[in-house]
Amino acid sequence: MSLMSGPNTRQPLYTAAQRARRDATKWTLVQGILAPIQFVVFLISLALVLRYLSTGEGYGAANASILLKTAILYLIMVTGAIWEKVVFGQYLLAPAFFWEDMVSFAVIFLHTLYLYGLFTGMMGPESLMWLAIAAYFIYVLNAAQFLLKLRAARLEMTPEVQHA
User: Fold this and answer.
1) How is 8-48 classified by DSSP, letter by letter?
2) Is pLDDT above 70 for 160?
């Protein structure tokens, strides 16, 4: 595959070898399963958090949902790092996913700050819920980044892009 030169030319997301490793590893499937599960948990949790913030009811359910979302986030981050190692040869910050990883760190930081605030008692319920909202906002941005990368990877596979 030859690359055209010019200001609008981008490097392909994957080399042929990286694409082959991506398609051969079980970690691609793991990510493909965990990502939609995490998104469903996020939607349910967001509804519970918003319910608590608007009514003052359901703190326990909202908190439990945030803890579940955080656990899945940690799981997807660890398995994603393994996926990146298999495909790109490094656990995180591979050039193709550098910005997605950087925003993921912000998402992890905010979720971890939630845990710290909860378990130390340093934050009250309402502050914790607003922190969860902030974490969820950044999570949505991060999810959009990954969806755009997925779209870019699929577009790279179309004959029009391969022969451009």
Assistant:
1) T----SS-HHHHHHHHH-HHHHHHHHHHHHHHHHHHHHHHH
2) no
Domain count, the chain: 1
Cβ burial, residue 110 (10 Å; 0-12/13-18/19+): buried
pTM: predicted TM-score of the whole model, two decimal places: 0.84
What is the DSSP secondary structure assignment for residue 94, as one 8-state letter?
-
Structure tokens at 32: 């493909």
pLDDT tens for each residue of 63-119: 999 999 999 999 999 999 999 999 999 999 999 889 999 999 999 999 999 999 999
**Residue 127 within any structural domain of the chain:** yes
Two structure tokens written together for 157: 């596979």
How many helices and strands, by DSSP H and E, does the chain display? 6, 0
Classify residue 129: in a domain, yes or no.
yes
Of the candidates 65, 75, 72, which has an alpha carbon nearest to the alpha carbon of residue 133? 65
Q: Are 134 and 99 in contact (CB under 8 A)?
A: no
Q: Structural domain of residue 60, as residue ranges? A: 16-148
Amino acid sitting at position 35: A
